[in-house]
Amino acid sequence: MSARVLLPWTDIDVPEGLDAAYYDGVEPPPADLGGVEFYVLPYDRGPGGAKLIKELPSLRVVQSLSAGVEALVPLLPAGVRLANGRGLHDLSVAEHTLALIHAAQRDLPRWFAQQTRGEWTREHTRSLADSRVLLVGYGSIGQAVERQLLAAEAPVTRVASRARPDEDVHGVAELRDLLPQADIVVLVLPDTPDTRGLIGADELAALPDDALVVNVGRGTAIDTDALLAETRTGRLRAGLDVVDPEPLPAGHPLWTVPGVVITPHIAGGSASFYPRAKKLAAEQLRRYVQGEELLNLVER
């Protein structure tokens, strides 16, 4: 009898020896989930995909298409392996990070507003080139962001959870000493006990006037009230793809603060993501049926 796999797409090559069922996170799942050993979670389709895990008694592997999987770990039964989507979002998030920075540095919201009014008023703006960037979170996404920053001729200081002197990476313990030298801070962090509230009132106060805070990791890394206080005065600016709480309530004052650019957690979902995700899933299925080591396994 073939092992069953549960996939979010029908247009993926399924190796011989596997029987595929499909669940896209929107339509109801198959009535019969018995025998499903390998589950590729739907991406960005709400909580239903994760909740389905408990309905799969034969489950052996969960393949997430997200880089961050901290919310999934408590849901996994003992003995079920978890693989993440490391690498799938690198270029999408890097592109979006640079878009947020350029939007803030080149004052794009101002010019977009002028366009709607048919106005032609000119003024020179800030630049990314030669701006000192403090990159907090130096995994694969952070490294992709760095490549684009360096191409823009912005000097980058790397920060990770632990110092890696051989790679010129500072530890997060040095953050307070590094903040005063940053024109732009980019956060690419997961949601963990160590990262929650990492950037609070004291850290924001350490930044120089007119600094830009960019968050493309998880919203919980920044104290939202503290960020609101600093941006409301105009002393700091922000480019945010993630916030806390998320989604940001419609009446939240952060929506209307001048100098704050907000996008609704869409950095990782560009067109380049889906072909890469399908390629990874197909490779994982091939490895699974051949008994080979899976990619991107998460230690628990």
What's this entry about, in short?
This protein is of the alpha/beta class. It has helices spanning 48-51, 90-105, 108-117, 140-151, 175-178, 201-206, 224-232, 273-290, and strands spanning 3-7, 18-22, 36-40, 61-63, 81-83, 133-136, 156-160, 169-171, 184-187, 212-215, 237-240, 260-262.
Architecture overview:
With 300 residues, this protein is α/β, with parallel strands linked by helices. It contains eight helices and twelve strands. The strands form two sheets. A seven-stranded parallel β-sheet has the order 8-7-6-9-10-11-12, sandwiched between helices. Strands 2-1-3-4-5 form a five-stranded parallel β-sheet, covered by helices on one side. Helix 2 crosses helix 4. It is elongated.
Please state roughly what percent of the residues sit in beta strands, choosing from under 5%, 5-15%, 15-25%, 25-35%, 35-45% or over 45%: 15-25%
Mean pLDDT: 96
Helix and strand content put the structural class at alpha/beta
**H/E order of the elements?**
EEEHEEHHEHEEHEHEHEEH
Largest sheet: 7 strands, parallel
- Uncertain spans, ≥5 residues at pLDDT below 50? none
- The amount of helix comes to 25-40%
Number of strands: 12
How far the N terminus sits from the C terminus, by CA atoms, comes to: 31 Å
* Shape estimate: elongated
Major β-sheet strand ordering: 8-7-6-9-10-11-12
What is the alpha-carbon Rg in Å? 21 Å
Number of helices: 8
